[in-house]
Amino acid sequence: MVVGDGIGREIVPATIDVVDASLASAGCDAVSWVELPTGWAGLEEAGDTLPETTRKTLAELPGWIMGPHDSSAYPEPWRTRLSPHGNLRRRFELYANIRPVRCLPGVKSTVSDMDLVFVRENTEGFYSDRAMHAGGGEIMPTSDVALSIGVFTRRRAEQIAHAACRLAQRRRGLVTVVHKAHVLGLSFGMYLRAAEEICAEYSGVTLDGVHVDAATVHLVRDPGRFDVLITENMHGDILSDLAGELAGALGMSPSLNASDRQAMAQAAHGSAPDIAGQGIANPVGLMLSAGMLLEWLAGQGHGEGYARAGHGLRQAVEAALHDGRGTPDLGREDTTASFASAVVQRLR
What we know:
The chain has eleven helices and ten strands. By secondary structure, the chain is α/β, with parallel strands linked by helices.
């Protein structure tokens, strides 16, 4: 596990408790957890926000739980370097960021019919800090001109389309490509064509497209029209945060960063330094991310017990929320630890 910074010190241990209980309830062997330093802990222990020992250890693992990072607070040169989680996404080619968003029982939301999944390309696009093999993707030829380079490759467009179609076959069968192909015809046009070609290979999957600006309107007015959405990196980051807040609270938004052989469970929110150390951080997003990781591990052949554990974890979290448990951001009175205890009780 990687605790990270800020509220990571609270939500990661809470999530570990819930994962341990879910594995036990599913009859799985216990996990021996090892904490790997990153962020501020990495700087203090090894002089790097992503120490070599952490990188080497993660390279040998099929999956891990990742806490948030407060990269903007690091001293230079780390502040302007790629964040630890961004570095890991690129280093291990975790090309698919799977972000489900759903209204949960008992939780007040702005919309009532949201149940969708963003499949966000995770290594390219308009995030120029992580799209280059060497050097940065932003340059200033003069003091008053800045250029930012977006990267789009056919390989990633096809990979993300396959991931979306496989997911859609297990859901309602609709894939929507979010794009700007009418303006950026070469880059987003390639994404759109790749999705059209790949989706044609999957029975029961229907494809449509929507401009990114129109997608924001539909998420607010009619989120039920969406099932699985393919997005570019930056667009997916923005849209999924919007959807998460509409569904109740960003603190409940899970995500999984996956390649074909590794996955990293990481909540969609940040390190929330303003409430770090107060014991009130919402751990639901990371707990549900860990549940996604367990189910992903089962799909990779690590045992059906992991699928039962992931399903049970999700049910226990939803049951606790339905029963009125939750942290202050939901208008409730639990601490991070007491909410974790409530979930663990429902797993026994």
